[in-house]
Amino acid sequence: MNKIWIIHNSEHGNSEKISHQLAEGLKDEYEVTVKSIRGLTPEEVAKEEPYGLIVALRVLAFRADNEMRAFLVKLDKLIQKPISKIAYFFTHALKWKKLFAKGMDKTLKKIGCVEEICPEFLEVKMEKAEGPAVEGSDEKINEYVSTLKNFLK
Fold first, then answer.
1. 9 vs 35: CA distance, rounded Å
2. Domains of the chain, CATH where assigned
3. Which residue among 29, 31, 102, 123 is least crowded, i.e. fewest CB within 10 A of its CB?
């Protein structure tokens, strides 16, 4: 069974909750590990040589989480076998702007440890920074699980 890591840097628990929802939807086809980068090192992920990586991003100060970007850059320097598939999702309490995703795409294209980036991403708006997610988000998350299953094949 292929190994998938879902990493987050959740401040209020929103990204962590969605990470676990995605993991639940994928666990029948993949060995899934969900961890916060606060208790994880890039070396741990690199050692596992995961088939896939799903990255949860918080939008802070109008850009994707700098701590997560730094983690990915460190991972890129350590990984021996490229990660076959990578996908990402955003949580935010702002008006959605495409520049958030453009910045993440740019970061992922710069690092060499990724073979293929999922062309679709998930963005989940929170009612406020502390959550909860706006109404209808569970359906979006479930649809993204299907997207991920097709992408990860």
1. 9
2. 3-152 (3.40.50.360)
3. 102
